[in-house]
Write a structure and sequence with these properties.
Elements (H helix, E strand, L loop, with lengths): L65 E2 L3 E9 L3 E8 L4 E8 L7 H21 L8 E7 L4 E6 L4 E3 H8 L4 H20 L2 E2 L8 E4 L4 E3 L6 E2 L28 H15 L29 H10 L11 H8 L21 H5 L5
Antiparallel strand pairs: 1-2, 2-3, 3-4, 4-6, 5-6, 7-9, 8-11, 9-10
Helix pairs in contact: 3-4, 3-6, 4-5
Bound molecules: adenosine-5'-triphosphate (ATP) and magnesium ion (MG).
Amino acid sequence: MDAGHWYRSGPNIPSRTVTTPECPDRPSGGQLSAIKSSSLRIPTYTVELPGSSSEYGVDPLILGTLLDDRYRVLRKIGQGGEGDVYIARDEQLGCDVAIKAQFPRSFESSQTYFSAASAIEGELERLTFMSHLPGIPRVLGDGRYGLNKGRYIVMELIDGVTVESWIAEHHPVSAVAALSVVAQLCNILDGVHSEKYVHRDVCPRNAMLRTDGRACLLDVGISGKVHEVNPDYRGTPYYAPPEQYNRESRLSPQVDVFSLGVMLFAMVGTDVPYGDLEGPPDDATPPFPKGLSSEMPEGILTLALSMVSFEPRGRPDGVAEVLRILGRMLPKLGEDRPPKATQPDSTMPFRLGLPLL
Ligand SMILES: Nc1ncnc2c1ncn2[C@@H]1O[C@H](COP(=O)(O)OP(=O)(O)OP(=O)(O)O)[C@@H](O)[C@H]1O
Ligand SMILES: [Mg+2]
């Protein structure tokens, strides 16, 4: 496995009309804390991103520029398969936003360039459709930039950290903090699944914690419709379930349940299921053939193991079922801050009764 994603443009998604919202009323700045080294044993893989490296001189094409006479691109905050993510200043509304922009044109063929544009457009359609759901960033606009009319999406800037950097900072995460993240993601996914979508890319890099501990799920770019045939070979290695490697399988919410289970192992333990395999998981190999090299509290281990069952039908029957099982292990309303609270504190929304945003 040599890359974080496999590519293909997405299916047609019915669009939902959204009105351009007011400037989101959230504090700006304080993005993405530095990633500390972690003892987590997730095998590493290299993602080569054509056109994303500043050694090609492509970043300056967009940094500092004013897109569509409105968005001043300030700083790069993330990098993905199809484009980079920036903080930009919306000079019309006077607030900061996040912009996901297609990589600037480099040496690629027109076909490759236009298929990247259509991938961003597919993501825009899905995000627009799901933008009303709590915990999904709101779409604020979209546009084209530069001579080659690269596509970009303007969205709500989530002020917080990725769950990836949060894990690196606090690993191993306490059971209650980890369950608080998974429970919030279950609530977000409940909305996604009720819209008949499967996210297909739930992983620590695609989830964020706002500064008050509320979770947010990013990157609906490869989501697909429930019951449809698995549309392509895309996903994040180790977080994608076995059936995501199979073009004949049908999409079910259990895809996302598997990924959440892997997140539990990544947060609390030191191994990820099927982590020693070089290729896709197979039903002959158990998730941890050599056993677990770190201890996990029993209640969590039983739940997490069931979530990463090879067969979808061996997993809890959807995120509501996961929530039912872990509900009793969550912090109670009014409870004190845990002794070793993380920053952001994922237990805070439960202790203070904060709804998802
Ligand atoms: N709305 C947002 N607010 C704040 N940060 C964001 C936002 N959207 C994305 N990011 C940052 O940019 C990174 C990449 O974003 P995203 O996952 O949407 O892109 P991607 O191209 O799909 O990346 P990948 O291929 O790695 O999944 C995220 O991990 C996060 O750090
Ligand atoms: Mg992503």
